[in-house]
UniProtKB/TrEMBL annotation:
Bias-annotated ranges (Low complexity): 15-28
InterPro entries tied to this protein: ARM-like, ARM-type_fold, ARM_PUB, Armadillo
Domain U-box: start-end pairs: 51-321
ARM repeat intervals: 80-123, 163-203
UniProt protein name: U-box domain-containing protein 45
Pfam family, any one: ARM_PUB
UniProt source species: Coffea arabica
Name of the gene: LOC113700196
């Protein structure tokens, strides 16, 4: 039997990023131009989905799934099918009917806030939670459905109140890779609702999330959402303890800081900064021990404005004293880093940090020279050798 295609699209304020994911072996749903839905075809399928004949209902559900897969128009036209499809989830003796209905509901919910809410209102959450149990054949589809439904701000508190969070953490621990990805995305969606972070932390997800970061490409959307969750967790003392107690936990964050996407690196540096700000004496050494300095130096040059600011703040907190030493040694980034380098254990790391500091200074000089050159071209007569002057300095 073919596997489902599914998207999660944020239906809440713009701060919640849209997430798209697919089950193994499938390609993402994408809206493509189709002919206008035939009213007679829609009516026929809606009639069949309410039939007393189970096989007709199953075939109608499969047709709804197929048509809604790539068409927002069909998702709208089949909104009246939500209630009979949810009823099919309750058929205790027919996994075939359960699966056909669940996959149809999944495609109806894609990019449709109204259908997401209607599906929960119609009572789908109870059977979906039942499908999440580890021995159920529809566990993977149920995880994908929760991912999609949890993108709705209206659904978030209802889903978390139904006891789904511990089940999602169990999937993080024991599920296949695609289920783990879907589960962490669903947890991320739920974490944006006030109060849910405490519920998630109580389920002890940090070891599973650290493992997922380790096994994921650091620039992936999965690593981004994992690191965003970790950044939220370390706002609580139990979250900070869980991360530092997990072998390789801080290192996993440092690796994302070094090679993640721009957004992931911002979450990573935010995580380490929050830890250091909460208790500098407790977390400074564990952070330094994982070789964070080279990544922070790179971030001060190549990160987003917010990442650059956070990286510089963290560098100040990581040195011996977070305060300027004297008027003779100004609190420049170069002096902060030089102070840190002298404290680093291990020649390799110190050498790499010194090299990166030199490169950072060089880049800063080149940027300044380019700026001066542009100004000179505007304000200086054309016969002055501005370019040759710049080339002599930059070839140093």
């Amino acid at each position: 039997m073919d596997l489902p295609n599914h998207h999660v699209v944020a239906a809440t304020p713009p701060t919640e990023a849209a997430v798209a994911t697919t089950t193994a072996g499938a390609s993402p749903d994408t809206d493509v131009p189709l002919r206008s839905p035939s009213p007679s075809k829609v009516s026929e399928i809606l009639h069949l989905i309410q039939s007393d004949d189970l096989q007709q209902k199953v075939e109608a559900a499969r047709e709804i799934r197929r048509l809604a897969k790539t068409s927002q128009r069909y998702r709208r036209h089949f909104s009246d099918a939500v209630k009979p499809l949810v009823q099919m989830l309750l058929y205790a003796n027919s996994v075939e009917a359960n699966e056909a209905a669940l996959l149809a509901l999944l495609n109806l919910a894609v990019k449709d806030e109204t259908n997401k809410i209607s599906i929960i209102d119609a009572g789908a959450l109870g059977p979906i939670v039942g499908f999440l149990q580890s021995d159920h054949p529809l566990q993977e589809h149920a995880t994908a459905a929760l991912l999609t439904l949890s993108a709705s701000s209206v659904n978030k508190p209802i889903i978390s109140a139904a006891g789904t969070i511990p089940l999602l953490v169990e999937i993080l621990r024991d599920g296949c890779m695609q289920m783990k990805v879907d589960a962490v995305m669903a947890l991320y969606n739920l974490s944006t609702h006030p109060g849910n972070l405490n519920l998630i932390l109580q389920a002890e997800p940090v070891p599973c999330i650290v493992d997922l970061i380790k096994s994921s490409k650091k620039s992936s959307k999965t690593a981004e959402k994992c690191t965003a969750l970790v950044e939220s967790f370390v706002g609580f003392e139990e979250g900070r303890i869980a991360l530092t107690s997990e072998e390789g936990g801080v290192l996993a964050v440092v690796e994302v800081l070094e090679s993640g996407s721009l957004q992931s690196r911002e979450h990573a540096v935010g995580t380490l900064l929050t830890m250091c700000q909460s208790d500098r004496s407790k977390y400074r050494e564990p952070i330094l021990r994982e070789g964070v300095i080279p990544g922070l130096l790179e971030l001060t040059i190549q990160g987003s404005p917010k990442s650059q600011s956070k990286a510089q703040m963290l560098l100040r907190l990581l040195r011996d004293s977070p305060y300027p030493r004297s008027e003779l040694q100004p609190d420049t980034l170069e002096n902060i880093v030089s102070s840190l380098i002298s404290q680093i254990d291990g020649e390799d790391q110190a050498g790499k940090a010194k090299q990166m500091l030199a490169e950072m200074v060089q880049v800063s000089m080149e940027q300044s020279l380019r700026h001066l050159q542009q100004r000179a071209l505007v304000y200086t007569p054309a016969d002055l050798p501005v370019a040759s002057c710049a080339s002599e300095v930059s070839s140093k």
